[in-house]
Amino acid sequence: MKIIIFIIPICFLSVQSYSQILTSEIAVEPTGNKTIVSGLLEVKAPYDGISQFTVNTTSSNAELRFSKNDTIKGFIWYNASNNLMAFGRGSATNSFFTTTDGKFGVGTTTPRGKLEIKAPYSGDSQLIINTTSSNAELRFSKNSTTKGFVWYDASNDLMAFGRGSATNSFFTTTDGKFGVGTTNPTEKLHVNGNIRATAPVWADFVFDKTYEL
User: Which member of 21, 64, 134, 183 has the greatest number of CB atoms within 10 A?
Assistant: First the structure.
């Protein structure tokens, strides 16, 4: 009689255990029951191995979703049919993608260059370079050597385009003046240096109603 009484509670407890921790793994029942853990999940590899959290699938997609109150707010997604990795908020227009050949697309699944930005519909495509210091710069380099730049100087409120110094660059001011070789143009076009024009027949560029040809 004592043996029977002892077995019945054990059977009852085993029915209520939907998932268990087996050999350091979290088991999820195929019937749809799931384990909700209040806290953090840490994956730690033994010794010097690589820590991995694997999302595997036999279909075309594998996805890791980030949700709030069961509403999807973001995802990391692999599309096997296009061989793409995607990171975003729910659609191609507000996500970015990376291909196997190292191209990145923002708002496009088919980037044609190392970085392509596509605005949705008729919106403006924008690449914003922001800074809390005095300068913001976009550099063009070859073998890590700067060959050109687009540069904003906040202290002088100038935009510059050039090759590395004031003497071989041109600048534009907020009032629409352009300076070639000078950071302080005083006319619509201000050139610090020589201007050369070549043509088989010289044109007359004097625009005055009293000037006789």
Answer: 183
